[in-house]
Amino acid sequence: MPEPRPGELSLWRVPQGCGLRFKTLDAEGLVFNALSGDTHLLSSSGFEILQFLAQQDVHAWSSSAAVTCHLLGDAEVEMQAQVEKNLLYLAQLGLVEQKPS
């Protein structure tokens, strides 16, 4: 997985048509992607990030800084880098997409 560059503005969203369904477990979450038919077990942080993006307008892109602020109330570069890593992992699973630069 490529390393995010701290401070870089990257934009993310849930791909159109995913039809994500969420189920909370103890400290994790299950996500079903109706488009692919895949079910994923996510950490609580990955689950929260994905839920936040799924609640946004389908045509809108959210910055990693906005996601960090929503979850932590602070967009420190160190925390934003961790959120960025989570976003890259979610992208590998096909649950989010990064806006092409």
Produce the secondary structure layout.
Blueprint: E1 11-13, E2 21-24, E3 28-33, E4 38-43, H1 44-54, E5 62-63, H2 64-72, H3 77-92, E6 97-98
Antiparallel strand pairs: 1-5, 1-6, 2-3, 3-4
Q: Total number of helical segments?
A: 3
Q: N-to-C terminal Cα separation, in Å? A: 18 Å
Structural class label: alpha+beta
Could you state the order of secondary-structure elements as H and E?
A: EEEEHEHHE
Can you put this structure into words, describing what you see?
This protein is an alpha+beta fold and 101 residues long. It has one domain (11-98). It is 36% helix and 23% strand. It has three helices and six strands, in the order ββββαβααβ. The protein has helices at 44-54, 64-72, 77-92, and strands spanning 11-13, 21-24, 28-33, 38-43, 62-63, 97-98. The strands form two sheets. Strands 5-1-6 form a three-stranded antiparallel sheet. The protein has a three-stranded antiparallel sheet with strand order 2-3-4. The radius of gyration is 13 Å and the shape is globular. The model is unreliable at 1-7 (pLDDT under 50).
Describe, in short, the structure shown.
The chain is built from three helices and six strands, in the order ββββαβααβ. It is of the alpha+beta class. Strands 5-1-6 form a three-stranded antiparallel β-sheet.
